[in-house]
Amino acid sequence: MRLNVFSCRDGFVLSADCMLAPRAAEMDCGPVSALLGTINCTELPEDVCADINNQVDARQYAFVTMEVAVSSNLRALIEDSARIA
């Protein structure tokens, strides 16, 4: 699954690449940034990808903490997608 990535208070909001961050994400996580880039969920560790997929299925967005983002190398994945685009 391709995901849009937005920064927010305390982490990142991810949503399916066909939509912007849902209003519920801003209500739950605070204001979100402009689109930072996209990632392919399968490039993340399997357990992180499964958690993100479950969150997106349940509420149309996922919240990823800074700790998980750093350990999953989320920044590098975003930068790679920006170079390809």
Overall description:
A four-stranded antiparallel β-sheet has the order 3-1-2-4. Helix content is 45%, strand content 25%. It is α+β, with helices and mostly antiparallel strands and 85 residues long. The protein contains four helices and four strands, in the order E-E-H-E-H-E-H-H.
Concise overview:
The chain is α+β, with helices and mostly antiparallel strands and 85 residues long. The protein has helices at 23-29, 46-59, 66-71, 74-84; strands at residues 2-8, 11-16, 37-40, 62-65.
Task: List the main descriptive attributes of the protein structure presented here.
4 helices, alpha+beta, 4 strands, 85 residues, 25% strand, 4-stranded antiparallel β-sheet
Spans where pLDDT lies below 50 across 5 or more residues: none
**Any idea what the radius of gyration is?**
11 Å
**H/E element sequence:** EEHEHEHH
Query: Helix fraction?
Result: 40-55%
Major beta sheet, specifics?
4 strands, antiparallel
